[in-house]
Amino acid sequence: MLKAGHLEYFGMQLTDDQIFLSCATGTAEEGKWAGKAKVSYHVVVNNGMAFPDVRACKKFVQAVFPNGFLDNEVPDGTEPPVDLAPYGSYQSFKTIHQSKTISSDRVAFPLRGGWEQHLVTHFACPPMLYNMERLGDAVKEKVKRDGSTSEGGRGSIAPVHVNRAEQPRWVDPAAVNPHSVADLLRYLPNHIEQPWELFFTVACICVNERVPFRVFDQWCRDSPKYDARQAESTYNGLEPRLVSSPGQPARTIATLRRLVEHCHPRIFEEATNRWVHQCMFPTVDFAELGIKRKSYSSRYVKAFTQPWTCYPHLLLRAHMGTGKTTQAVAAIEELKPSSVLIITPRQTLAASSMGVYKRALPQLIHYQKSPRVDEERFLVCQLESLFRVGRTYEIVILDESESILAQFSSDTVKKFQAVTASFKRVIQTSTRCLWTDAFLADRTISTCLELVGDPAKIRYTENTYQPIRRTAQLVGKGANAKVAINSTLQRLASSGDRNVCVSASRRQLEEAECLVPAPRLFITSQTPDSVKAQLADANTLFTQYDNIGYTGSITVGVNFDVEDHFQNLLIYSSANSANPRDIMQGSMRVRHLQKNMLYYATYPRYLGNVHFDVFNREKLAEIIDGRVEYQRNIKLDDDPLWSQRQGLEPWLRRLWVFNQQERNISAFHHQRVLEKYLELCGYNIEVADVTVDDLVSIMDAVKADGDTPYDAVSTIGYAEWVEALGRVQRGSATQEDKLVTSKYYLDNYMLRPGVQHTPAVMHELFQAILQHPGDIMRKMHNARSEHGTFHGESNVFQDNRQARAQHMREICAMLGVKYSHQVEAVIDSVVMEKTCVQILEKKEALRVAFGLRYQESEQRNGGDVVTKRGLEILNAMLAGWGFTQIKRAAKRKRFMQGGSRKDGSSFEVVAGGSHRKGQRAHNALCIEHLDLHPETDVDASP
């Protein structure tokens, strides 16, 4: 009979006719029961119940049949022995009278229920989960020997159950090191009974993260079921994995963090919040540094002319809309300087600054309109063009200083050495310097102190008044974020509201544009510069439209102050594009909203390989120091700028740490950073309830794909290209200019010569250039740097390309291949093993150069293991370097050596990436049709 109270115990309805029980008796043919009589019971539960693991299933059977399957009485306090072997699929259980073995004795006879009650159609009821705590949102998957999981669902790690201790260990959040497996294991309870899959998962983590066995064994010793031989055999029986294959995620330290966080909720909150806080607020000790500090709360920034005369370098932090620029203009009018330089991070801010500062400086000139920039006494200049400035200035104004300093890490800074030298000179030679930003933090304070040297010359002033009180509503997250924000925009626009949409994705804006009625204006990289120039007078431009959209590139320099025009603000952000600070600055360009409502959607999962999960400033400082040291020790004969890159000044090293910390934390904790900025800017956050019907209807409504056909763009010659390229660089290009220059560059500087390209291929390549130019150009520059034909400037501050190219050349030489993108190359297994030995010997240098994440490991014997470990590191390098990866050949070759079987299969270079996302097909297209070879002439660039 069924156990009484099962409804309360399992949280579900379970009746007698929903359980089928059969019995099979006979003599076992194999295994530990071979030659012995055995009785097996088959239990089928057909109410839709799903068991997450064997332990839960066993517990269920023991609870449903407390007295055994034949209802025999058992002594109180004991449980019937259950040697459970659950079937993972329905096909394993055939018919009630069909034997699963050849033996005629092994036939199952029904003991309870009948087969007619257990047809497949009976499983139509909704599935119910066993009433047990589950960790994370994951799907069940089969675990392989190497600790990976087979492809299924979203390809996530199978759910792992961990029991919490009744009295958990006290945790000091400030002392937890999220980057140490040994430290994290201290907070994963093992002194209580834990399921086997937790033991196996921890073993996989330790092997994958190259943690010594003693660390794993020390954690195992806390268990009451500790078995030294089982712990050692499990650890040694696993093969390490570094890179997660598509659909086969590896168990890594990130998995361990989730397990620990399940046992100690919010254990990492303090560390993560501390890193986020460091990127957004001043955390330095002003008294220790000797910097004067003043704080007040006022609707508008107070005049600072008098303190500016006492402190040459004034640092001002105040929220947007409180009058920072107004007071700067007033100070210039009062001081009447003989020369002024205004540095901006964007061209739009440079253009708008002309209108703002013209009142106090009628002779002020824009750097693009001056024939002799180095002689101008009153100048507005964007950071990238600062190398053209040759004189000293009495007053230097860094409008949006955080954005300016972050711009040093951008690929758009082509002449890095000249720009940084000019920046340092104008700061150190100025009489007075004003650093202002709504989010001014340690980056500005540290850079100013490094360049000035004397803290007595610096004063930090903060106006804490927040003029904005709005509501922010989360309408979508993850895969449905784009659809959710487009659905919200369409709904608001159809109701007659006027809206502003700020997006991290050009594609999302193109889809949104076809959903809203005219008049509308959506500004992307393809928008004519004549329209962008009108942003200097945003009040006139924006009032002509009901719906406005622009990307995160418009962060500063645009101010829309007209009241009673726009009702709502919408934001789409992604961890794989613009950082939250740029998105928030872009959203604050519209100062007034009638409804004071912001709707936002975010894709918080980082999928790239440019940033890495290191957030600690000390660790980042070690990384940049290691890169600089390596760069200093290599001498490249084909690198004419080697002498300029032997070192990196201390202030630039420190600035790199701040920039990389912000990039990493924004990528891996994107939503938290975004919502912290929302709170800082005066928003109260809510979560909206978006239905599935809303998302389906909006997906059906998006008709246009936004593609620009390759054949529809005109083909031009070299002279026309030079003229059009000049207009692009001067900021006066039309949309046609931008398209024809991209097409000309693709045709003449990217396509592989002598290859016939079909219209379909040209269309796909052209779309890739328009939509992902940065990623493709970066990998092409990497290939040309590997050949020694890249003529652009490279440095460890921005990309560390030369050091990585040197590593790639050395590895290719060991493999016997010419280049890393030589897809037709076949590599012998012996050569691969020797190369992997060399890779493992210098893995620390490779980790620093390529930003790989793994920890120190004990050396383990076995050629196959060494090859596998080295190949994983090599493919991790290739993932961020180019278009390829290395894998074993399809035809396997095995042989016996020393009593063990070895894999002698060769290896081959193939296109890298994921099949599921189309990356592999796209990379194969680039390898076949783009010119990655040394004969390429790359003197010209778009």
TrEMBL record:
This is AAA+ ATPase domain-containing protein. It comes from the Eukaryota. SUPFAM superfamilies: P-loop containing nucleoside triphosphate hydrolases (SSF52540). Pfam families: Herpes_ori_bp (PF02399). Residues 310-456 form the AAA+ ATPase domain. GO terms for molecular function: ATP binding; DNA replication origin binding. InterPro entries: AAA+_ATPase (IPR003593), P-loop_NTPase (IPR027417), Replication_origin-bd (IPR003450). The lineage of its organism: Eukaryota, Viridiplantae, Chlorophyta, core chlorophytes, Trebouxiophyceae.
